[in-house]
Amino acid sequence: MTPGTLYLIPNTLGSSDAAPAAQLHAVIPQQVQTISAGLTYFIAENAKTTRAFLSLLKAVQPLALALQEIQISELNINTAASALPALLAPLLAGRDAGLISEAGVPAVADPGANLVRLAHQQGVPVRPLVGPSSLLLAVMGSGLNGQSFAFNGYLPTDAAQRSKRIKALEERSRQEQQTQLFIETPYRNAAMLDALVLACHPATLICVATDLTLVTETIITRTAAKWKSALQAGTAPDFHKKPTVFLLLAA
Q1: Integer distance in angstroms from the first to the last C-alpha of the chain?
Q2: DSSP per residue over 125-155, as a string?
Q3: Mean of pLDDT values over 54-60
Q4: CB 17: neighbour CB atoms within 10 A?
Q5: Alpha helices in 64-127 (DSSP H)
Q6: pTM over 0.70
Q7: What is the DSSP string of 181-221?
Q8: 3-34, pLDDT tens digit by residue?
Q9: What is the pLDDT of residues 213-238, one digit of tens each?
Q10: Can you tell me the distance from the alpha carbon of 250 to that of 173, in angstroms, rounded to the nearest whole number?
Q11: How crowded is residue 161: how many other Cβ atoms within 10 Å of its Cβ?
Q12: What is the DSSP-derived secondary structure letter of residue 109?
């Protein structure tokens, strides 16, 4: 039997007050909407956000099945490797599926990468679809080095370990002229920026990219020294509990 195709479905980077059509058309291409609407099986990082995505989609075009009849299986950081074959089994039986992240593109800073690897091993066609990536959008908008960059995930929460890690990334950036990207749990954004200002050389460039693709989007690039002055003046960015990408490039 010919296996189905594993479509890598991009999700929006957040919700807004715009009408469903406006929310989708701003960041999700029509082809992606059409393919997504025709699928009846999704492998999701978060079932709730996938249902929200499908609800937006339903408002602009018919779904292949009623929303409650669409199968959604979860794949997240707690999913054991032993569970992956069962997630892939419907595809091996000929059924198409969509792998979808909680936000942005799947398999990039996302647990779906392991399923994609298994799909390749099992001969399942993999088709990535175009959509928003907060990491690439942050690099594009930062003005930092877009020729060489690295994503480092989350930094340590312990203050001393975090400072040590920031200094190591800054040194790597200095040696390789490489932009370093990382993220933080949104309610700790202020603590992350404070740590960057304290740990980095005054001339190091730091970018804070928040709420990308949303009407509240902000992208600010300053030296560590200028960020320090801004924070001392009480003009921190409005990023509390908002998804944010942090970037640095050493001078």
Answers
A1: 56
A2: -EEE-----HHHHHHHHH-S-SSSEEEEEEP
A3: 93
A4: 8
A5: 84-92, 113-121
A6: yes
A7: EEE--GGGHHHHHHHHHHHS-TT-EEEEEESTTSTT-EEEE
A8: 999 999 999 998 776 666 777 888 999 999 99
A9: 999 999 999 999 999 999 999 998 99
A10: 6
A11: 11
A12: S
